[in-house]
Amino acid sequence: MREKRKISRRAFLKTAVAGIGGMTLALNGGGAAAQEKSPAKPKPAKKVLGVDVIKVGGQGVISGAHADYGWQIQAGATLAIEEINAKGGILGSKLELKFMDEELKPAVAVKNARYLATDWGAHLLFGVDSSGSAMAVGPILPELDRICVFDHASTHRLTEELVYGKGIKQIFRIAAPVYQESNLAALIFKEFPNIKRWAGIHCDYEYGYSTWALFQDTLKKYRPDVEFVSIAWAPFWTMDFSSHISAVMAANPDAIHATPWAGEGVMLLRQALMMGVFDKIQAWFQCMGGSVDLLEGISNEVAAGKFKDKLWATARYIHNYPDTPENKKFVESFRKRWNRFPNYSAENAYSTIYVFKAALEKARSLKTSDLIKALEGLKIMTPAGERYFRPEDHQAIYAVPGGRVVKDPNYPLPILGDLKIFSPQAYYRNPPFEPLKMGK
Amino acid sequence: MGFPLFMIEGKDMETLAFQGLVGLSVSMYLWLLAAGLTIVFGVLGVLNFAHGSLFMLGAYFAFTYYGLWGVNFWLAIAMSLLSVGVVGYFMERFFLRHIYHMDHAFQLLLTFGFILIFDDAVKMIWGGVAKIPPMPSFFEGTVSVVGRPFPVYNLFIIGAGVAVAIVVWLLFEKTWWGKMVRASASDREMASAIGINIPRLFTGVFAFGAMLAALGGALGTPVRVVAPGIGSAMIIQAFIITVIGGLGNLKGAFVGALIVGTVSAYGILLFPVFELFLIFLIMAVVLMVKPQGLFGG
Amino acid sequence: MKTRLAVLILLFLLALLPFYAGKYALYVAIHILLLSIFSLGFNLLFGYTGLLSFGQAGFYAVGAYGCGKILLAYPSLLAGIVGGVLLAGAVSLLLGILCIRHTRIYFSMLTLSFGMMIFSLAWKWRDMTGGDDGLVGIPRAPLEVPGLFKINMAAMENYYYVVLGFAVLAIYLFHRIIHSPMGLAMQGIRDSETRTACIGISVQKYRLVAFTIAGLYAGLAGALLPPLESTVTPPLAHWSHSAEPVLATLLGGIYAFSGPIVGSVLFYLLKDIIVRFTEYWLICLGIIVVILVMGFRGGVVGIFVREGSRR
After folding, report:
1. ipTM, 2 dp
2. Which of A8, A395, B286, C106 is surrounded by the fewest CB atoms within 10 Å?
């Protein structure tokens, strides 16, 4: 590294002023009046809600091993918005969507939320795949004065701690939280007296910790004879689960409970098959195994019967339940529009838009406080069944079954069959919430 | 820290041996990645930050040829090597060649720029969603090792890794090209003086290193996720391996890969808490105590 | 004289920013100021002393977590910021002692590994750091000196002025350091280690000082973050975050005083603008990096100041 050049004063002045000027111009959309776009500018009373266009800002993961979920959220929301706009919009105002990539990073999710709300002018926020991002976005919602309906982020802490505990009322969650894969699994497997030794292969982050802790807690209550013999933790970006699988199999478990999801989940199951796991165990519960991308990924193996009927799963919605006209219509429209089956993120996002519609129609206002009042206690029919947003923690209550992963001649990909259906009251936690002891 | 330090529940010899074998198969991917990295550093003097991206490209190309176009598995691997070799050629010939005289810092920065470019490029070409290719049928099945089923594919990987080690060793020790490369590595000016075309040789070495990385990626395709960013996730481990073994030292890279792979595997079995921290601690200790690495000097 | 005028005009424009910029622009402006502080410290190590550190994010994170923990327990803005900075300084001093004996590639890799060790600690030590969820609900505590004044920080404009104040202070101090005998010694070490050692300057001592100052600056940038975002998470310590001041400084100009600052502005502008048009902003950034390294190693500032462009 040779000589440092001394900077001339003129150059410094030039670049500095250019920098400030450029920054101001660019950040204000280049030439436009430098004002914050305020969403609810009153217009000559044409629309009930006071705006021509209702802006909906969403985010999810659009890249990496979990990218399908962001795609599904966007697809579901877009379908709903197209349907609603075709029928005239909400109270005469059309919907507009802007979707951003949260990159599985809380800092990015927060920045996106701020941008969507303050710069782009979103009236409503939704989405967010990762629990960490949700926990970061939640607390800034009061400052942004917007509600956000969370679609995927499954940590119980979002509703139990932030809504019920800290009173951040702008948070609503439409997707089933970790109660689904932990407590429901316990309810299913308490009925299998021969399964006594459980092992876990779990995500080495909060999602994995809370799921495993809840599962153990609940199962132990019903079956004190059960032992938890082994656990392996897999961080984000684990590509090779062989070491994890061999570590837990060394303890001779009867069954395995696993959280790695999306592409990682597919690889985990494949590698488990390769290692002959399904010859030895009695059952494997793949937490979000009912998700479309995972089912697509293992369809050849399911068709060949490799899982020996031992693979169980659940999801936050499965397209073949419930058997209602609402659900059938949604699945058909989604398949027609996108040529794929809808994932739970898609259904959650689709329903989110309709939830927004219901709230806006009830409140007849875009004000956050009015919307909160409209959403609390809201009962609405969605493809996943009837959802009820309980006022205590703003969590939507609805039933999703667990089942065996099977091949069905009516569908081009595996589905969950042999469904075990429970009323959500049986497995959702209720306030007051005991804090969860999450050891490792 | 509020949780048990490690979990040993009567892990017997067989369990430990089996876990070691699993760790060995994981090491092979790391070896293939680290081998190219260390060769490039040893000969060209450049630490290629983007080497993991070449690994990732190998996986993507193999997925395309084998998974999408239905090409024969072995042919697909060969094609993937060639494709990444071409990428490596362009990288060296038009970019790296012009910065050899610069401070190491700029070389790191340039190759870092390439990481950004490759990560987005694969998203643009293949889409951001992870790819999951089929498994070649002749690799299915297991063999019994210490009474447990060990996948045939993992055995194949171990075999392939060892085979590559032998071939590369032979290449550098016994062939004319290998001798030229070694001569240029130890004294560039002398080598040039006796008539070796250094620029062309360097391009060849870089392409060779790129192909090794691509081989690692391509071999992993049937069993691992193919997604943007899988390269950057591994590059740090590759750095650790080359540091432990000694920058520029092939034997060191092999041993280093074995260490990192098996420590990881045993870490998952015995010390589920500390695994990540442990690896970096080892690298830091080696750097402080013997920065040339175990085999360097 | 002219520089002073230029600086005053600049400060004037910045002081008035909340009045002509929107809310989101103000938020980004604060981030730019933080990156400027971060990059300035980084460049003391790189541009002036010749050491490329890929682990500065570790100290940034220490500052952020330190401030966050303090604010959660005792909501006074000054206590949090000062505490975070001091903690980061202490950690960088300790790690610096281990690092500065090595140079070039080994130094870079050692800093990389220490940064990642801090990252894995932040991720695993749930009891202390909240694990991958991080510290949540950190208050934007009031700026108070007990007995003297207490200013509420709920409005982002108020916090902007606090950050601006710290940034100006940091830049001023940096200017003093560069033009001190110590600063000249550091540049001497960068240009020729042997010659500098020959004239009796302790190379190790100045490297350590530079490393610690860089750590303090990183810690300041980190400590100013929690009151803004109310959350502190492990990715702040990841090596990919360490790359930000590297890229910003390269973009602005390694050899210039204002380089890191100009680079920080450009870095944010570029990302913000590109992201509105395409999701593929990484490839744009990558191409810019390649172009800069191949032809414009003096960065943007270097383009304006062509005198003596070597290397």
Report:
1. 0.87
2. A8
